[in-house]
Amino acid sequence: MKTMFKRTLSFILTAMMLFGICVFASAETNGTCGENVTWSFDENTGAFTVSGTGDIENYIDYTETPWYSVASSVKSITISNGITSIGNYAFAMFENAETVSIPESVTKIGDYAFYNCEKLQSFDIPENIMHIGDGSFYYSGYYNNESNWVDGELYIENCLLYAVEDKKGTYEIKPGTKLIASFAFLFTVEINELIIPESVEHICDNAFFQCVYLDKITVDKNNAYYLSDENSIIFNKEKTELVLYPAKNPQTSYDIPESVKKIGNGAFALAENLIEISLPSELTHIGNWSFIYCHYLRSINIPAGVTYIGEGAFMGCVALENFVVPYGITEIGKYTFAFCYGMKSITIPDTITSIGVQAMVFEETFGDVYYSGTEDEWNAIFVDKYNVSLDNATIHYNTVVVDYFFNENTQIIETPLSTTINYGETITLNCGIKNLPEGYRVVWGLEGNVVKINPTFEGLTCEVTSVGDGEVVIKAGVIDENGNPVRDNNGNYIVASQKLVSKMNVFDVIVDFFTRIFDFLFGLFR
To answer: For the purposes of burial, counting CB atoms within 10 Å of the CB of 289, is it exposed (0-12), middle (13-18) or buried (19 or more)?
Structure first.
């Protein structure tokens, strides 16, 4: 018996030494989880507390959370007032937690934040909630309770988490709904009409992703936060953000209004008929997955003022052949150009510091990268895995990156001069610049689609041909030898604009375009 005991003890000790090196180490019970946020766990009571101010960090998976080792032991979750955001996967797999306290300070609940919290039967949603992410309450006790699903929909208070699956035709969102969660309509793919009530204040990212038959959207005219236009496109009320372009919209080309500064996440996802799109000159933000799987999109010029292009933004745009990343972008995020199999060349500025996972996945027809920096600068860029298309490409160094539009910080002409052009005719616009420095150029852009422009290489003149009826604003600006917009001595960008009116009357003249203005601005170059 003693021998057997000794052998057993010896086996246990040996196993502990070989496989249980950390047996005697206790799991972490406190730490940080944000810039000004801490967490603690009481092993005796099972109480888990988050304290501080600001956001709880986002995690790529629940196994990456610093409290993963104690998650199954948690009985209660208390989030202190002052926390503003619950990060992705923050409390996922807290499968034994029975209560949670979410303070009024929280405005955002991230993706899968309470995933598989099987015993959490209820949640008090803060009054000021602005965002509920993908699968935030997936497989929680609340989600699993069939009595919470009414007529195939799942709400938490006045927040729509999941719409009715497999519904066809018209979908009218219930009056009183305040928030539509991310991917709420993921499985409601066959609706063709959507009616949004006056009460909706927040439409979360990708709320209507995969509604591939959707072609008609009506937002109640009394809604204080959103509007829909004659093309059933959803904007915020100020029309500074384009929220959703219906996937089944029949238009093959579209000009985004000049007021828009942000394209929302997934805004043009799966837009099957879109071939060409014109972006506004003041645009700054292109959201994640914004043009994903726009299979026929073949033409897009990115304005110089864009400072963010989101992950997966042009994934699956197989008709794109060339792309110019604007100067100032610092990161090409993961999947940005994944599966753009028609891509032949891409122009990249020397401001880029990293290229994400599978950001560039092209066919063998892809051959050229035009890079504005040196070979050493190119080699210093962090390139993540699965970007083999770059390995086989020819890199052209010291290439000038030319921006088509300009970041116009000041309005040089408060009311642009107006000129009438005969429909079908061509006029020449002259910028009137003298002694343009070597390597500097004038580039031209336009707001509208009733004319076509054809500038010379240096841009001192530009032919304008009328192809439609209406008004258009022509813009011109100066870039240096590196493609950067040039400022005057007052720090203002050297740009100007002129309004043209296309009418059916004879007009054939060479317009002295901006002569007085540019003569004054370019005194410093003489």
So the answer is: buried
